[in-house]
Design brief:
single chain; eight-stranded mixed beta sheet; six-stranded mixed beta sheet; 20 strands; globular; binds flavin-adenine dinucleotide; binds 3,4-dihydroxybenzoic acid
Amino acid sequence: MRTRVAIVGAGPAGLLLSHLLAAGGVESVIVESRTREYVEARIRAGILEHSTVDLFKSVGLDERLQREGDEHRGIYLQYPGERHHLDFVDLGAHTVWVYGQTEVTKDLGAAREAAGQQIVYEAANVALHDIETERPFLTYTDTGGSPQRLDADVIVGCDGSFGPSRAAVPQHARQTWERTYPFSWLGILADVAPSTDELIYAWHPDGFALHSMRSPQVSRLYVQVPNGTDVADWSDERIWAALATRLGDGENGWRLTPGPITEKSVLPMRSFVMAPMRHGRLFLAGDAAHIVPPTGAKGLNLAVADVALLAPALSALLTRNDPRPADEYSDRALRRVWRCTHFSWWMTSMLHTGEDPFDAQLQLAQLRWVTSSEAGAGGLAENYAGLPIGF
Ligand code: FAD
Ligand code: DHB
């Protein structure tokens, strides 16, 4: 089989890239190791920046988002005894949207299906070859156990943090930066109406907590837990009790309503950046090139920003023989990647508690500043709501 762009991975980055390439007249094939059902059910991100929503709107992907998504003007930031609303719009920034990654992936999958996009699901042993030439190709094993080959002009690795694309770049041609954090999140989905109109990010001596949501009937919440935590040690009662304490149930008349938990998992936290995001005819986008801890709600939005830059760059390369935008892709994308890496690290460092009482006082001083100074709040608002795609 032959195509112009071979895309590894049908997550948000791979699906959106194929959509944007098609709009620019460039044909692609996606090769994904999982089933479509698995990809669409994976519960992950929940917050879309305004530039992500604007992009979806500009390419006809916002119909259900406008109907079922929930536009938020800001967030609550709290520490014991105090809850402050940061109104991003009043602070000169934009709104954000609550719309689950599961829904984004379903919308993208439906749009690609309607357009006749070729997506190979359940491909095993996916491997990249000859990426330093102008004739790179993928090999994989199909569901019938037969070996297959996909020839292309360009390969794009959209295969997340554990896929083969990143590893296909030789050691001598890449630089990496990494930070692991000494805590994880335990996340739940619950069939209960959210106890808040907008997200609550809470600092507490017992550890961070976050109250998010998916719909008027479904809440999404997280608590900070030690690395290595086994979900089996956290009964539903223990989780709701920790959330009640950390989110301030009963304080100033606010109540947290518990409900049936339908999903429970532990997520480790990591920052990771690899540069450059290109080697020869292989380009990387999304989690394949960088990971942020989830506190700033940036991972999905960064994946979208990468492919928003990459799609026109590949169109220029493949339809007009103009290599300049493709040559500039990595540097341009990395500017935003590092800004979001800093913001995600900063939010994570400000909100998660550890052993050191000096650190705790610094965090509280920072939180008081961010919640009382227009400059402090404005910086958080601008970064959380998101910088322009081409920042
Ligand atoms: P992925 O979504 O990881 O997609 C990669 C795809 O490649 C997958 O479908 C995978 O199956 C496939 N693949 C892997 N290996 C192979 C292979 N060998 N061959 C073929 N295909 C392969 N981000 C936000 O912006 N906001 C949030 O609020 C937020 N919250 C989060 C909460 C949680 C609990 C988690 C875990 C993440 C959160 N993120 C958030 C991050 C966000 O989910 C990711 O950054 C996003 O999924 C990245 O998209 P991607 O397409 O680059 O990678
Ligand atoms: C969600 C996840 C985040 O990491 C975040 O910062 C905000 C919301 C969520 O899953 O809803």
